[in-house]
Task: inverse folding
């Protein structure tokens, strides 16, 4: 049987308002986050 495909809504996301932006749990940035840049130095 063929299943219906579910598409991601590209117009609505997790952050809809400025308050959502301020309350979003952003990932921590560390030195390891930039390891790829160090490879090309």
Result:
């Amino acid at each position: 049987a063929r299943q219906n495909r579910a598409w991601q809504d590209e117009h609505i996301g997790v952050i809809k308002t400025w308050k959502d932006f301020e309350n979003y749990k952003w990932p921590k940035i560390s030195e390891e986050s930039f390891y790829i840049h160090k490879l090309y130095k």
Helices lie at 18-23, 35-39. The chain has a mean pLDDT of 83. Residues 14-41 form one domain. The two ends are 53 Å apart (CA to CA).
